[in-house]
Amino acid sequence: MTCVNCARLVERALNRIDGVKFAACNLATSTAFLVAEREIPFEEIRRAVESVGYEASEEMPEEVERRRYREAKGNLIAVWVFTTPLMLLMMHHMFLKEVMGFSFIEAVLGLLVLSFPGRGTLRSALIALRHRHSNMDTLISIGALSAWLTSLLNWLDFPVASFGTIGSMIVAFHLTGRFIESHLRDKAVREIRGLLKLRLEEARVLLNGREVMVPLSAVKEGFLIEVKPGERIPADGVIVEGASSIDESFISGEAIPVYKREGDEVIGGSLNLSSPLRVKVTKVGEGSFLNQMIKLVEEAQGAKIPIQALADRITSWFVPSVFSLALLSAIIWFLSFERLLPIIAFFSRFLPWIDLSLNPLAFSIFVFVATLVIACPCALGLATPMALAVGVGILAKRGLLVKNAEAIQTSKDIGVLLVDKTGTITQGTPVVTYHNLSEEVLKIASSLESFSSHPLARAVASLSSDSIAFKDVREIPGEGVIGYLNGDEYFVGKALDYSPYEGLLNDGKTVVEVRRNGEVIGFLAVEDPLREDSRDAILKLKGMGIRVVMVTGDNEKTALAVSRKAGIEEIRSNVKPSEKLDLVRSFQAEGYKVAMVGDGMNDAAALKGADVGIAMGSGVDLAIEGADIVILKGGVSKVLDAMELSRMIFNVIRGNLFWAFFYNITAIPMAMLGLLHPLIAELAMILSSMTVILNSMRLRR
Description:
Layout: H1 4-15, E1 20-26, E2 31-36, H2 42-50, H3 61-96, H4 102-115, H5 119-130, H6 136-155, H7 164-188, H8 190-197, E3 202-207, E4 210-215, E5 224-227, E6 236-241, E7 244-247, H9 249-252, E8 258-260, E9 265-266, E10 271-272, E11 277-283, H10 289-301, H11 308-335, H12 337-347, H13 360-374, H14 377-397, E12 400-402, H15 406-410, E13 414-420, H16 421-425, E14 431-435, H17 439-449, H18 455-461, E15 471-476, E16 480-485, E17 488-493, H19 502-506, E18 510-516, E19 519-527, H20 534-543, E20 547-551, H21 556-566, E21 570-572, H22 580-589, E22 593-598, H23 604-609, E23 612-616, E24 629-631, H24 636-672, H25 678-697
Helix pairs in contact: 3-4, 3-7, 4-6, 4-7, 5-6, 6-7, 6-13, 7-25, 10-14, 11-13, 11-14, 13-24, 13-25, 14-24, 14-25, 17-18, 20-24, 24-25
C-alpha cells in the first residue's frame, strides 16, 4: 500500500467479506484488523485483498519486510542505472553540445524505466483505475507518462518540447523517496517488532523425567517446563521449583529485575537471569499475556481516532481534485499563455528553472506534470496513523497498554482525575501493623478474609495459614465479609464507630474491625505505605491543570492522613464501589472531562462511565472491563506518563496535520502558477511524507 486511498480500498474489500462486522487497515504498519461473526479462513481474506490488486500475507512481519526491502532495493538500483546516463546526456545536450537522436534515447530509456522499476507504480495506478479509484500512484503515473509522451512526440517531429528525462527522474525520485519512507516507517513502529521477537518457537518440557524440546504450539496447560539462566520463559506459568531474578522490562518499562520464587507467577517472554526454574504452564496460545499484549498494541496502532476523520474525508476526493486542477491549469495556460506570460517573466528573475522560451503547449505540460506530482495525499494519510503507531508502541514500552485509541485524543481535555487510593497512590501491598486479637479470633478473621479479593483482606488473610469452614459466606462490597460458624455470625471489615481508633486513623492506618453477633471482639490496624513517586507525580498532574481527587472506601480521617502525604487537597471518603459511577457523573455534570483510575474489579462501571478509564493491571490479566488504558505495573506516576504521552501524541498528530495541510495548500497553487519545476515538486512531495514520519519519531525522545 502506498497511500491512504490504498488502505481505504483494502478496507472496503475486507468489509465485503460475509460475516465481517468491521475491518480497519493501517497504512503506517501495513496491517489489517477484522471483527467477524464467524471464523474466516485466511484464504478468503487473501482472495478479498487480491481482488483489489494487493497482497495479503501470513508471514512474520520481519520476513515480509526483508522481501519488500529486496524488491525495493532492486527497483532502486535499476531505476538509477537507467536514469543516471539519461541525466548526464540531458546536461550535455542542454549545456555543451547537442546530442544526436537525444529524444529517441529519452523515449527508449524512459520506456525501460516505466516498464521495469516503475512497473509497480503503473500497476498500482491501473488497479485503482479498474476499481474506479485513485491513489498517489495515479498522480505519479499520469505525470511520468505525460512527460515520457513528450519525448516520443518530439522524436516523431511534433512541435513539443521533450520532458522525457524529467519523467524518468520523477519515477527515480519517487522510488527513492518510497524506499527511504518505508525504512523510516519500519523504524518508527519497531516496538511491536520487539514484542514479536519475544515469542519463542520451542520449550524445554519435562516428559517422563527427561527434558525434551517441544514446539511451543504443542505445549499445553499443566505441562512442566525447565527454564535455564539466560533463557526466556516460553509460556505463562507458576514456579513450582527454584527461585530467580526475572527481567520483566517489556511489561513495566523498568529494567529492575524482579525476584520470584516458588508459587509466584511468571510471564512468557520474560528473561530468567540467575537460576534454573521449573514452571507449570497456566496459559498458552492466544490466551497468553504476551499474545494478548501484542494483539492490543496492534489493534490500538491500527485504530482510528476522531481527528483522523477530517483527513480521511479530504483524501477520499484529493486525487481526483488534484487531477482536475492540473488539467484546468494546463488548459488555462495553453489558452491564455500570452496574457499570463508577465507573471512567469517576473518570477523568472528569482526562479532559474522557469524557461521563457517554451511554447504554450510545452509550458502547459510543464504545469500539468508539476501540479500532479507536487500533490501529496500521503502526508495527510500518514499524519494520524504514523503518530498513533509510534505513540502506542512507546506507551506499551512504558508498561501502558492502550485498549481504546480514542483515549489519546480525549486525554488532552481531562479536567478531573479520580484516583483510587489503594494500589495507585499507595503501594497496594498492605500489612497489618497491630492487632489485639486472641489466637483463636485471629484464625477466624484470617480465614474469613480469605474469601475476599480486597488488598486489605489479603493482608489479614496472610496472618494465618489455618482454614476454618464457614457457612453462608458473603462479601458486602465496600463494607466487609460475613460468615457463620457454630451458629455465630462473624463480620470482618469496617468499624461501626471510628472514634476509639482516632489516633491510628490520624496516622494513616486503616482499621479492620472483628465482630461476633454484632459485638466488637477486636480490631486490626492495617497500613498501605505511600508509593515513593506518588507525591511528585500528583504535583506534576496538578501542574498540567488537572484537578486530582482521591477516592477511597476508607473513613475520612485515614483518607485525610494519606492525602496530606500525597499532596492531594480533595478527597472523597467512605465511597462504596457502587457509588463511584455516580461520582464520575457528578463531575461530568459540572462540565469536566473525567478520567477514572481504578483496579478494574470493583469499579468497572466507573471506568466505563468515565471519559478515560485507566485500570491498574494485575500484571497477568489484560481483559479489564471498561478500561481504555491498562497500567501493567506501577502507580500514579504511570498515570502521569499516560497523560503526558497522550498529550504529546495528540500534539504531534496536530502538528503532522498542520504541515500536511500547509504543504498542499501552498504547494499546489505554486505549481498551478508555473513556479515549480516538476523535479522540485516531486522532491517536495517526498519530503512532505518524510517530515510527517520524522515528526512522529520525535515522540521517542
